[in-house]
Amino acid sequence: MSNSSPKRARVREVLPKLKIGRYQPGPTNSLTDVPGVLVHTQSIIRDPPASTWEVRTGITTILPRKDFFNQGCYAGYFRFNGSGEMTGVHWLDETGLLNTPIIITNSFAVGATYTGVYEYCIQKYRNSKGICDWFLLPLIAETFDGIMSDIGALAVKSEDVVRGIEQASTDPVKEGNTGGGTGMLCQGFKGGTGSSSRLIQGLELDEGSGIKKPLDGFREDILDVILGGVVQHSNQIPTHNLIFGG
Questions:
Q1: 102-106 and 139-143 as β-strands: parallel, antiparallel, unpaired?
Q2: Contact yes or no for 89/74 (Cβ under 8 A)
Q3: Which ranges of the chain would DSSP assign to H, the alpha helix?
Q4: What does the alpha-carbon distance between residue 30 and residue 57 come to, in Å, rounded to a whole number?
Q5: 3-class secondary structure for 125-173?
Q6: What pLDDT digit, counting tens, does each position of 188-242 carry?
Q7: CA–CA separation, 111 and 115 (whole Å)
Q8: Using CA atoms, how far apart are residues 86 and 64, in angstroms rounded to an integer?
Q9: What are phi and psi of 200, to 5 degrees?
Q10: Sign of the four-CA dihedral 102, 105, 106, 109
Q11: Cα–Cα distance list, 93 to 97, 141, 151, 227, 236 (Å)
Q12: Which 8-state DSSP code applies to residue 36?
């Protein structure tokens, strides 16, 4: 008799006629529906005597593009409350550009994962003399999993981030007790990693604008949240589909 559990179905699979929200999901309803985005999730599970207490933590690694270092993308952020730490946002405020992976991990692993991004980039992008002649501010977001995990075990290491960057793929994002959501709670219930994508219509800007992406024609409120004001609002009627994920 097998002890493995069947794959848990998503809400849309259980209730195919249920309509959630106003926009159509992407092909797999996952962040990796966005062209060029790669994701990797890793859980770290330890039980005594391997550790003093149970460890249930992990890392989610998101690459906005495979060559994130040389090909930055427009980025913004939304602050739901002031309690969480997310490094690198001052650079987003200043430039609106993202040239780093996005790492989601536990609150005590911000330092280790920050170092991990540097370790990967130093190894790959130092110049012919072995010197780093560039500037980078990693974007690390934390979640507190200290209720369900021994957060003081400092289980996440910098090499876990290097592995995540190297193994990130376009496969649909694993959900539930994995990655940065491994040990998460949400309002007293077990939380976890979730992902989705939506098709949003837009118009392609003319060549004179210098922007080739079809970013115009969004609803104004969507632009405020997704793009952080990077692109000017427009009242034009949308005609082309874009995919945004989260």
A1: parallel
A2: no
A3: 11-14, 89-95, 110-125, 158-167, 220-226
A4: 22
A5: HCCCCCCCCCCCCCEEEEECCCCCCCHHHCCCCHHHHHHHHHHCECCCC
A6: 889 999 998 888 876 554 544 443 344 444 444 444 443 333 333 333 333 334 4
A7: 6
A8: 16
A9: -130, 135
A10: negative
A11: 9, 16, 31, 11, 27
A12: T
Neighbours of 36 (CB within 10 A): 14
The three-state secondary structure class of 97 is strand
Question: Which single residue is written with the structure tokens 């977001």?
Answer: 141
Nearest CA to 243 out of 207, 217, 215 is that of 215
Query: Using N-to-C axis directions, what is the helix angle for 110-125 and 158-167, rounded to 10°?
Result: 60
pLDDT 10s digits, 87-108: 999 999 999 999 999 999 999 9
Rounded Cα–Cα distance for residues 100 and 87 (Å): 11
Q: Tokens standing for 109?
A: 């692993």
